[in-house]
Amino acid sequence: SSQTITVIKGDGIGPSIVEAAIQVLDKVGCNFNYEYVEAGLTALETTGELLPQTTLDAIARNKITLKGPLTTPVGEGFTSINVTLRKKFNLYSNVRPVISFKGTKARYENIDIITVRENTEGMYSGAGQIVKNEGELAEAMSVVTREGSERIVEFAFELARREKRKKVTIVHKANILKSTSGLFLKTAREVALRYPDIQASEMIVDNACMQLVMNPQQFDVIVTTNLFGDILSDLCAGLVGGLGMAPGANIGKDCAIFEAVHGSAPDIAGKNLANPSSVILASVQMLEYLGMKDKAEKILAALTDVIASGDRTTRDLGGSHGTTDFTAAMLERL
Ligand code: NAI
Ligand code: MG
């Protein structure tokens, strides 16, 4: 194909796992062109900017981006690059699936949950950030709109319908956050009525955390606001063996960024320890988005087999091998 993919290798473990994913994509004959650009700490060091204009231009031009995790330096003046990217390209849905793979150290089997996280507003709106009284008082604004709620809930129900799923759970905290979460819930209920073929249920976020740990198999598709979605998706990753198994797609009207759920993992960076499955699974999401279902299934089957066989898996999965061995096992299967 003549599809060009923008690639941001990212910081920390990013380059090693993104390179693994690209080897896998090439191995199944995707024939993508790759345009490599920088963001994050790597970009700051070489260009003086966390998010150079050339990077933004490439993301806009090619529409499809595969991205490694980025380190946002902690400290004043640095807004999260991820939050910026999601807002700038209006990538309003963050789709984070987790599925059980046999052969991990996960506590559960038969998990198949997709968290659909609102990606541009809520507590991450960035609005009204004020520190007052010489640092004694801090404020930030949660912004929820009907339009933003409607489009994310519609996205979740459309996804459920397309993928022949049975249930969408609307997760909220409308009992306490009456205005913001209240508007989200009210809008979600209205949208749910338009999908009589899909079962809609509601759950308050704290109970959802407990239910996910006690009885995760009851969940199918979850739709929720930004902050809750961020937290619940890491919890879901924990159900299937950890962050190394969790991909995420940031999808807007005509632009998408595929990445891992996790960050740059400074504690294991440069040690050949990272599990590349997160970004490989993000590539699978990318192929599905591009309508390349056969290749997506091939990669998924190879990954399933590598993990099930315990052949050359990484430490987080219970194995004793590194990123490169794991990737080699994938490439051999393909
Ligand atoms: P993290 O997600 O990088 O790491 C959390 C834990 O999971 C660590 O113990 C790490 O070793 C482990 N882990 C993560 N990915 C793994 C993989 N592929 N294989 C094996 N183990 C893995 O979270 P942390 O340490 O809180 O954040 C580090 C940096 O990443 C921060 O600068 C943060 O801002 C950034 N970050 C970036 C994200 C993105 O670019 N999408 C998302 C989350 C955090
Ligand atoms: Mg997160």
TrEMBL record:
Keyword Iron: no
One function term, GO molecular function aspect: magnesium ion binding
UniProt keywords, alphabetically: Oxidoreductase
Gene Ontology BP terms: isocitrate metabolic process; tricarboxylic acid cycle
InterPro entries: IsoCit/isopropylmalate_DH_CS, IsoPropMal-DH-like_dom
Matching SUPFAM superfamilies: Isocitrate/Isopropylmalate dehydrogenase-like
Pfam (any one): Iso_dh
Residue ranges occupied by any Isopropylmalate dehydrogenase-like domain in the UniProt entry: 4-330
Annotated EC: 1.1.1.41
Family classification: Belongs to the isocitrate and isopropylmalate dehydrogenases family.
NCBIfam families assigned: PRK08997.1 (NF006529)
Protein name according to UniProt: Isocitrate dehydrogenase
Annotated organism of origin: Rheinheimera mesophila
